[in-house]
Structures are given as structure tokens and as C-alpha cells.
Design the sequence.
């Protein structure tokens, strides 16, 4: 879309500036065309932006799920470490009592 806008600007750039002559139908048509192209580009960016937003939202959802999974695994590891530490503590207490 941007390429078409640049081509049209190049074509219309050969027309003398508005200040140098009274505004005619061609200039009015040019302004309407440029305005329409600007609105079209803006709408295109909004649509493109919403699809990008959907992709980002999908990534956020995946990352939240991964975080939940990692938290669950972390909790399991914590429990296992607590059990291992308690066993080691019991073994050390038994050995210290035997000395």
C-alpha cells in the first residue's frame, strides 16, 4: 500500500505547489485521494496491529502456562529437597548420638 502512495506522490509532485496557483479540481481530487490513502493506511495498520496483538496475547498465554508448569515442578522439587534434608538431618543426628 505504501508503494502505491509513493508512486502517486511522485506523479503529483510534478504539479506546481498550491501557493503558486489557485486550487482547481485536480488539486482537490489530489487532496481527497491523499486523504483516502492516509485513512486506508491507518486502517491497514490497525488491522495489522490487532493481528500482532493476537500473536502477542497467544505468546503471553503460552508463557503463563509455562510459568504455572514451572511453579508446579518447583514445588515438587522443594518437597523432595525437604524430605532429603530431613533424612540427612536424621542420619547426622543418629551419627552424632553414636559418637
Sequence:
Amino acid at each position: 500500500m505504501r508503494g502505491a502512495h509513493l508512486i502517486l506522490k511522485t506523479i503529483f509532485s510534478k504539479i506546481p505547489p498550491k501557493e503558486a496557483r489557485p486550487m482547481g479540481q485536480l488539486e482537490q481530487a489530489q487532496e481527497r485521494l491523499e486523504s483516502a490513502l492516509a485513512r486506508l493506511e491507518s486502517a491497514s495498520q490497525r488491522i495489522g496491529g490487532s493481528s500482532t496483538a493476537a500473536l502477542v496475547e497467544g505468546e503471553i498465554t503460552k508463557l503463563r502456562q509455562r510459568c504455572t508448569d514451572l511453579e508446579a515442578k518447583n514445588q515438587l522439587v522443594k518437597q523432595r529437597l525437604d524430605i532429603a534434608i530431613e533424612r540427612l538431618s536424621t542420619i547426622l543426628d543418629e551419627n552424632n548420638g553414636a559418637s
Notes: DSSP finds two helices and no strands in the chain. The radius of gyration is 35 Å. Residues 2-15+23-98 form one domain. The chain has one domain: 2-15+23-98.
